[in-house]
Amino acid sequence: MKALAVATMNLAALLLCGCSDQQSALDPAGDQAARLLTLFQLMLWICGIAYLLLLLFLGWSFLRCRRTQEADDKAQSERRLESLLGVWIGLILVGLTLLILGSFLSDRSLGETADGQVLHIRVTGHQWWWRIEYRQPSGQWIETANEMHLPAGRSAVVELRSADVIHSFWVPNLAGKTDMIPGRSNSIVITPRTPGTYRGQCAEFCGVQHANMAFLVKVEAPATFGRWLAAQARPAGRASPSEARGYALVMGGSCSACHHIGGTPSAGRVGPDLTHFASRSTIAAGTVPLTHASLRGWILQPQGVKPGNAMPASDFSPQDAQAVARYLETLK
Ligand code: CUA
Question: Which of left, alpha, beta for 172 (phi over 0: left; psi -120 to 50: alpha)?
C-alpha cells in the first residue's frame, strides 16, 4: 500500500515537473511549439471525448443486456440502436475531419517565418555533440558548439545535417523534432518569443552516449544576442604570460589536431570549436557543468564522464591538465 502511495506521488511529481520546465513541450516559448501544443490539445480533447463516449456506451449496453425484454420492446430498442449508431458514425466523421484539418493547418504554419530579417543557422550532429554555425550577412560562417543563442521575436531557419549517423534535433519548448540524416539536409524554423534558457536533446538513438547529447538554447533580447554574436566572431584573445604553459601544451600537443581556436595555430575540425569555449556553461554537450574541476577532470580523463566519445586519453600530468584548463578558461 505504502509502495503504491509513493509510486502515485512520484508519478504526480513527474507529471507536474513536465508542465513547466526548460525542457517541456507543454511550456512553449516560441511560435512553433505553441502551434504544436494547440494541435496536441485538439487531439487530446477529441480523442478524450470519443473514449469517454465509448466507455459510457459500453456501460449502458452491459446494463441493458441484463434486463429481460419483451419481443415488442426488442424491436423498438433495435431501431433506437440503429439511429444511435448513425449518430456515432457522424461523430467519428466530424472528429476525424477536425483532426485532419488541425494537423494539416499546423503543419503548414510550422514553416512560416516572422516579419523581419531571418537568421540562418546550420547545426551538424556528431557522435555526440553539436556543431553550430551562424551565417553572417557577408556570407561568412561563425562557428560554435553545444550552445545556441537566439534573438527573441526573430525567426531562425536552422539547417540540420549529420556527420555520421542519424540524430534528431529537438528543443521541446521551441519546436518539434527533426531528424538529422547523413547525406541530406533538413530544415526547421524556430521563432522564439520568451527569453530564457531551454534544453535541447538528441531524440534519435545514435550510440552509447545518445543520452549525453544535449545542448542549451539561450533566447535573448536582440541587442544581447547581437553582442554575443559579435563576440563569437572575434578570434580568441592572446594568452597572457601566466597562461603561456597551457597555451603551449594546447598548440604543441594533440589538442590542436582536433580543435579549432580562432586566431591561433590550432586548426583541427574533428572536435568542437574552442575559440570561445569559456563562454559556454557546460562541457561534453551538456554532460557536466563547466567548472574548473570538471574541465581539469575532462582533460585528464576524457573517457571518465562520457565513455566512448572521440576524445582520446591524454598523457598530461595533473599539473599540465591544470595549465591547459587555465588557458581554456580564458577563451571567453
Ligand atoms: Cu545523437 Cu542521439
Answer: alpha
